[in-house]
Amino acid sequence: xxxxxxxxxxxxxxxxxxxxxxxxxxxxxxxxxxxxxxxxxxxxxxxxxxxxxxxxxxxxxxxxxxxxxxxxxxxxxxxxxxxxxxxxxxxxxxxxxxxxxxxxxxxxxxxxxxxxxxxxxxxxxxxxxxxxxxxxxxxxxxxxxxxxxxxxxxxxxxxxxxxxxxxxxxxxxxxxxxxxxxxxxxxxxxxxxxxxxxxxxxxxxxxxxxxxxxxxxxxxxxxxxxxxxxxxxxxxxxxxxxxxxxxxxxxxxxxxxxxxxxxxxxxxxxxxxxxxxxxxxxxxxxxxxxxxxxxxxxxxxxxxxxxxxxxxxxxxxxxxxxxxxxxxxxxxxxxxxxxxxxxxxxxxxxxxxxxxxxxxxxxxxxxxxxxxxxxxxxxxxxxxxxxxxxxxxxxxxxxxxxxxxxxxxxxxxxx
Amino acid sequence: xxxxxxxxxxxxxxxxxxxxxxxxxxxxxxxxxxxxxxxxxxxxxxxxxxxxxxxxxxxxxxxxxxxxxxxxxxxxxxxxxxxxxxxxxxxxxxxxxxxxxxxxxxxxxxxxxxxxxxxxxxxxxxxxxxxxxxxxxxxxxxxxxxxxxxxxxxxxxxxxxxxxxxxxxxxxxxxxxxxxxxxxxxxxxxxxxxxxxxxxxxxxxxxxxxxxxxxxxxxxxxxxxxxxxxxxxxxxxxxxxxxxxxxxxxxxxxxxxxxxxxxxxxxxxxxxxxxxxxxxxxxxxxxxxxxxxxxxxxxxxxxxxxxxxxxxxxxxxxxxxxxxxxxxxxxxxxxxxxxxxxxxxxxxxxxxxxxxxxxxxxxxxxxxxxxxxxxxxxxxxxxxxxxxxxxxxxxxxxxxxxxxxxxxxxxxxxx
Lengths: 415, 415
Fold this sequence. Notes:
Two copies of one chain form a homodimer. Chain A is of the alpha/beta class. Chain A has 13 helices and 14 strands. In chain A, a hairpin with a 2-residue loop joins strand 4 (151-158) and strand 5 (161-162).
C-alpha cells in the first residue's frame, strides 16, 4: 500500500508518561519467536498451536450460517458480561460430569484463558503479593500477573508434577520475607505447560489438604485436560475444594484458538468481582463466537472431535519421542513422556545454554522455546527446552527432531 | 436444566484475598439496568445499542463462509497481538482519509473499544494519577481506569462540547493537589456520550494548543464519528497532534457490536507497550472476527451501509426530538440536539432527582440512564438523563418519549 504521508509526524518521549507497572511487563519470548519462526523453511516446535488441518471447518461454517440466519440480531448485539446463558449451562453440565460441582452461575466466559489469568490478577493481586507456583510454570500467567506487581515463590516440579511437599515451606518463606501470606497457588495439573507432567491423585489430595490448612486459594489452569492420550482421567483439584478453587479452561485446544473463548469456574461470591473487572476490561466476550461455539457444542460435535484430536496428538507425541530416541544424544539428555497435551520438556547437558543454542538451532532451521522463559525468577531452565508436538505434521516432526538432535550432537562434539 | 448437586459447597469469605483496587470497581449502572430493561414490555432508552434490524446479516454470513472456506486454517488459529495485517492496512488507509496520518504500524486491533480504554489505563495510570475529562463523561472509561487507581478532575461541558478554556486551570489545580501533572486528557469530540455534543473546530485547535503547551497527552475517543447526520465532518484532534494523541474507534456502531472489534491508533513508540499489555490481557483479538470484518470492509460494503445507518438514526433522533416537543414539559426542561451518534442528554427541573425518578419511569414501562452515572466524582447530573435513540423502532420511540413526558408532568404536578 502507498500512504501519502504529506508531513513528518514528530516523535515525543513517552517514557515520563508510562505507569510504573510497565517496567515489569515483558514481551513474551514465545510470541516474539512465533514471528521469527513463521519463515516457511523453519520447523517450529516453539509455539503452542493446535494442528490447523484438524480444525472443524465445516462445522464452524455451518454454525455461523445457522447462528446468523436464526438468531443474527441477538448474536451480533451486545450481551451480558457473564456470557451467553445456554453456553454457560452447557459448560456447567460438562464441568459437573468432569467432577466439578458447578451451576451456570459459577461459569463466566472469557476472551481466551489468557483473559481469565488477567482478571484473576486484577481482582486478587496487590503490588508485591506473592504467588506460589511450580518451576517451570506457564509464562502467560507470569505475563498477566506481572502487570499487577506480583512476585513469585516457586516450588520444584518432578516427573510427577509439582512437588506438593514443598508448599508449606514455600508458604512460610513468603510469610517471613513479605510479612503477608501468598495470595494463591497456581497449578497446572494436567499435561503441564511447559513440563508435560501430570499431578497424581495422591498429590492433588495432598495439595488440597495442605492449602486447606493454610487457607490458600488455588488457581487450577486446565487447558489440556480433555486431551489425555492414555490412562484414566484424574479428578480436577476443584472437585476437592470448589469453595477455594478458581478453575480455568478453554476452547482453544479442543475447538479452535482463533475464536478466543475460554471460561472460569469460580464460587459465586467471587463471580460478582470478576464480572465487574471484566466489564471494565472488555464489556463482554464476543457474542457471535459464543453463539457459534454453543451451536457446535449443543450438536454434540465436540466429544467425537476431541476423541479424534487425542489420536492425532498421541501419534505425534509418539513420533517425536521415537525420533528423539533415534537422533538425539540419548545418554546425555532426558525428557518427559507426557500422557496428554501439547508439550514435552527436554533437558540437555548443562554445558549447553538453550537460549544461546537457539541461534544454532535456527541455523539448522528448527525452533523451540528455551527453558529459562518458564522460570519467573529467571533462576533455572538454562539447560532445558519446551518442544511442541501438536502443530507440525508427522514428517516435519521427524525431520525437526532430527535437525535438533544433530545440532545437539555437534554442540557436544559428537559429530 | 437439572444439575444433580450431590453435596453442599461450603462458602468462604473472599474479602481478605481481594486486591485493594477492587474497592474502586463498581458494576456499571447501565449494564445492570440492561438486565432490568430486558423485560419485553419496557421501552428502554437506557442502553447504547445499535438497531439490530439493520445488522448486515447477509454480509456477515457471506463473509463467514468465504473466510472459513478460503482461509479457515489461519483464520481460526492464534494470530499476532497487533492484529490481522490486511485489516490494519485497511484501517490505516481509512484513518488517513479521515485526516489522521496513520500507517499500519500505528494501528492495533482491540477486543472492542472498551479494551482500548483498559490497555491505556494499564500502560499509563499509576495509583492516584489524575485524568482530566468533561463532566459528564463516558462511564466505560471511568470503569476501566478505576481499576488502575485513577482520580478525575472534570471540566464543564456546554452545547459546544468540552469547555476547553478550563483545561489550563484544571491542569494547575491537579498539579497543586497531587504534586504531579495529570496523566492525560480524555475527550469525546463527536456526538459525545452521554451529552450528544460536538466539539467545534475552533475548540479542537484550542485544545491542541493548550495541551501542547502543557505537554499533556490526549485520548481521543471517537466511536460515533462516522455517524454524522448533518453538517460537515470536523477533522479529528489527532490530525493536529498525532505524536501526542491516542485515537480510539470501533466497529461496534458501524458493523455490529457482537464481534467485539475496536482499534487504537497511536505513535509507534507507544505501540510496543500496548502490545505487551495486550499480550498479558488476552494474547490477541479474535482472529476469526478480524478476518470476517476485513472481508466485509475490503468488499466496500461498509460505506453504503453506514450511509444507511445515518439516515435511520437521523430519523430516530428527529422522532425523539419531535415527541419531546409534543409530550414533555418543554418550559421546564432542556435537551441537546445531537448532530450524530446515538444519544441525547436531557435536563429536567432540579426538584426531580433522576435516579429516584427512574423507579417511577419503570412503573410507566420506560427506562433511561440517570445523569449522575456519568459524573466520575458523583458531583452532578442529578437532574439529567441520557436517552438513546438508536435502538428502539420509531413507534416505540414515540410511545416511550410520551410515557416519560407524562411521568415528568405527573412528578411536576402538571397532570
